Structures are given as structure tokens and as C-alpha cells.
Amino acid sequence: MPHRDPGSVGVVETQTVRLFSDDQPLVLADGSTLGPVDVAYETYGTLSDARDNAVFVCHALTGDAHAAGYAPGAIRPGWWDNLIGPGRPLDTDRFFVISANLLGGCQGTTGPSTLNPDTGRAYGLSFPLLQMSDFVTVHRALVQHLGIARLLAAVGGSLGGMQVLEWATSHPDDLANAVVVAASSRLNAQNIAFSAVARKAIMSDPDFRDGDYAELGVNPDRGLATARMMAHITYVSEDALSAKFGRTPQGEAIRPGFDVDFAVESYLDHQGEAFLGRFDALSYLYLTRVMDYFDPFADTSALAGLAKRPVKFLVVSFDSDWRFSTQHSRRIVRHLERAQLPVTFREIKSPWGHDSFLLDGAQYHATLTAFFDRALEEGL
């Protein structure tokens, strides 16, 4: 049995629910339909009698439904375990926390690697292109399935924060508070370029097979590992990499050549290899493309609905994050302030770059704790 942190929610099993069917399919933002749609999710804590303490967690690009606690037999806890649990910022003695794998995620939720009931084969590249609002449509259906009329809050980092921003601006009646961490309302050219190269690496792998790799019993491992290696570089700061690796050789001495000569190269190789067992290449293509096209404030009336029922926002950035720098967060804040919406902004000092939103930073967690405590005190 794994060691149990006293602040952990313990053993948690992921559940799956069918939210849309062939007869009642999901209608996507582009007008196309998809069904059936299954969704993987977990819950932590207890829903209050008044059903007024629910907080929805939206995961980042490579996340899943398992945000906290331990899967049966697992050694490592969920990806946001330091945030969720008794005595933690999302205190499960007081909050009812929901975490779900998003549409297209292929980690229990329907996506491009799911079998198409019409063909009996995986959807592959015939799976429809998605928009951020499609993620939210599925999240909303899950909340309704759980019998919750309004969320106390939604919280997410990176792509998860983008989902929260979409949810709060398009359906403000659904939630009282929105926490947007290390996110963006519009990717810049550099971010789009990073994702373009990652997708190119995947699709250029000979085993990609036009997206039909699963049916043919292969996997574009080299391309997917390369995509992960490159992305991981953007998730950490230069200072963090320098402090951890510097120019340390991998072996006793560097023997110049094209093998793994430096410790940082070995680290990236490990990141790429570890990624292969837990993420789907098609999901990487589809989810990164959703991020590319997300631009909610392009619609000048995007915040009009919030005038009648304002959502309270907390926007958080990290000073060493160069993937979604503080400028991205400030852009969100400016739009919210112009609409005279209640927004709190914090730039947190952290040496760890974009990945800081996943870590247990004292100032970061104190900021979240104060915001969630106030939200619970004020209620819906």
C-alpha cells in the first residue's frame, strides 16, 4: 500500500457516466453532433444539503479526471493533490470538488481514439474539431447530472484556466466565482508556433498512419515523445533548468557526439518516454488546436451577460512563467476591469515557470485559500 499523506483524500476510483446518447447527442459549437459521449470524473468531499459548496476543477492539456487522492494501488497521488484535501486550499471537509476529463481527452472521456459506433473503428481524424465552448457544454452536463444548480466556483490552470474563463463569460449563471491560473485569453504567435511544431512531430511520425495508428496496432511514439519533450521545456523556467542540471554531464565525462551527453538531455528523454503510457497522440492534436483558436474577447459582447449576474474572478500568474507570461493574465484582467467586474489579480513569485500552478507554493496557496474561504463565506 502507498504511504498515505494525512492531508490526502485517500483512495479514489474514477467514475464514468454517459451524458449524451445516439438519440440525444451532444450538439457541438460548429453545429455537428456527437454521440454517445461518456465522461470520466471524480468527486472529493461531501455535497452540502443546500448543494452550495461545489467547486469544479478544469484540468490542463495533459491532465485527467484524477486530480486528488490515490487510484487503487497507485503510489503517486493525483495531479493537483497538494491543492485538494482536508486542510488544503480546496478543503474537502468544507468543499465538494469535481474533476472531469474533458471532451477529446481520451482518458475515460470520449475523444478521437474512441470507437465510432457507426463504423466500429476509432474516430481518428474523422472526430470533429472542437472549441472551448464544447468542453464547457460537457462540464455543464456533468454538473447537472450531479444535481447541482450553481457552482460555488470553477478553477483551472493553463488550458483549465481557459475553460474556466469560457464558462464564466458564456454561462455566468452557472457559477459564483472563477479562478483562472497561468492561463491566456488569446495565444500569441510564439505559443501557436510551439504547438504547431509539436503536432508536426506527431503527424510526421511514420507510425501516425493518418491517425489510424490504433487500428493498425502501432503508435507514433517518437513523434509524441518529441512533442512532449519540446513542450516540457516551455513549462519550466531557465533558472529552474539551470539550477537542476546546469551543464552537468550525464555520465562521468562528456564524450562529444550525438548521444545523450548532458543530464538535461536524459531528463527530457525520460519525460518523453513517461508520457507515452498515459496520453493519446490524437488528443494532443485536438486539444492544442482548441487552444490556438480560443479568443473569447474577440466578441465585443463577450462580457455582456456578466453585467446582470457578475462572477467574482481571481486571476493568478507567475513571474517566471514564459509560456503564459503575466502579460497574458493582465490582458484578461484589463477586459474584466473595463466591464467593471469584480476581479482580484496576483502575480506570484516562483522560480519554476509555467509548472508553478501545479506546485505547492506558500504564497500561491495562501492566495487561493483566502479566495475560496471568502467565496464559501459569501455563498451563492
Concise synopsis of the structure shown:
The chain is built from nine helices and twelve strands. By secondary structure, the chain is α/β, with parallel strands linked by helices. Helix 2 links the parallel strand 9 (151-157) and strand 10 (175-181).
List the helices and strands and how they pair.
Blueprint: E1 15-20, E2 26-27, E3 33-34, E4 37-44, E5 54-58, E6 96-100, E7 115-116, E8 121-122, H1 132-145, E9 151-157, H2 159-170, E10 175-181, H3 189-204, H4 221-235, H5 238-244, H6 263-276, H7 281-293, E11 312-318, H8 326-338, E12 343-348, H9 362-378
Parallel strand pairs: 5-6, 5-9, 9-10, 10-11, 11-12
Antiparallel strand pairs: 1-4, 2-3, 4-6, 7-8
Helix pairs in contact: 1-2, 3-4, 3-7, 4-6
